[in-house]
Amino acid sequence: MDARERYLLHVCCAPCSPHPLQTLQKQYDVTLYFHNPNIHPELEYQSRLGEVRRMAALEGLPLIVDEYRPDEWLAGAAPWKDEPEKGRRCEFCIDGRLDAAARQAAALGIGRFGAVLSTSSRKDVNMIGRLGKKAAARHDLLFDAADWKKREGAKISVRISGQLGYRRQDYCGCIFSKRDADARRTTRPA
User: Fold this and answer.
1) Which of 14, 97, 109, 152 could form a cystine bridge with 55, CB 3.0-4.6 A?
2) DSSP letters spanning 56-118
3) Closest by alpha carbon to 51, among 20, 18, 5, 88?
4) pTM here?
5) For residue 47, how far is the Cα from the chain centroid?
6) Neighbours of 46 (CB within 10 A)
7) Cis-peptide, bond into residue 62, ω within 30° of zero
8) 1 pLDDT band (50/70/90 cuts)?
9) pLDDT tens for residues 138-187?
10) What is the structure's pLDDT at 152?
11) Bridge partner residues of 34 (DSSP)
């Protein structure tokens, strides 16, 4: 049997990952990569990382966890703290995470990478594709700009996540998206 092509998959959380993993594992030898300095507070970061570790163990997949540097991320994102979701703050955040994934893939000799970020309706798939391709070009790699929401992909991930007991969160991860989610919760009618 021929060896399958290796693939580095950036994961932001376990609940966004089941559909992409199901699809990619049919064709690739997948390695998971967790680089999410945007996630706040640290307790939330540790919770999401714990779920990803559990997912990696269930799937029998290698997981690379990058160093958690929230202060650097926060300093870089601060100019766009009042930007709406899918704005310049998200562009800064996604660009940094995809560039880190591309660097990691190149260091490992993996020529193709992608991300589960587009599973979320909170993310702009065109932005992800553009930034992923830019990161890929900088490191001479291929980026798969998959829209994991399509063809019921988000619903599939939600269903499988529920079956596996993954904890779903109600904000993207950064302190600013948490602030906005908290504000939405307090303004909802009872």
Assistant:
1) 14
2) HHHHT--EEE----HHHHHHHHGGGTTPPTTSHHHHHHHHHHHHHHHHHHHHHT--EEEESGG
3) 18
4) 0.92
5) 15
6) 12
7) no
8) very low
9) 999 999 998 887 877 677 777 877 787 777 787 788 889 888 887 877 87
10) 76
11) 65
Both tokens assigned to 1: 């049997």
The Cβ of residue 136 has, within 10 Å, a number of other Cβ atoms equal to 24
Residues 6+ apart with CB under 8 A from 51: 13, 14, 15, 166, 167
| The two three-digit tokens of residue 84, written as one number | 């709406």
For helices 88-108 and 70-77, angle between their N-to-C axes, nearest 10 degrees? 140
Q: Tokens 């904890």 belong to which residue? A: 167
Q: Which two tokens stand for residue 101?
A: 């994934």
CA 131 to chain centre: 13
Q: Write the CATH number of the domain with boundaries 6-187.
A: 3.40.50.620
Across the strands, what pairs with 103?
none
Q: Does residue 78 contact residue 72 with C-beta atoms inside 8 Å?
A: no
Q: Where are the domains of the chain?
A: 6-187
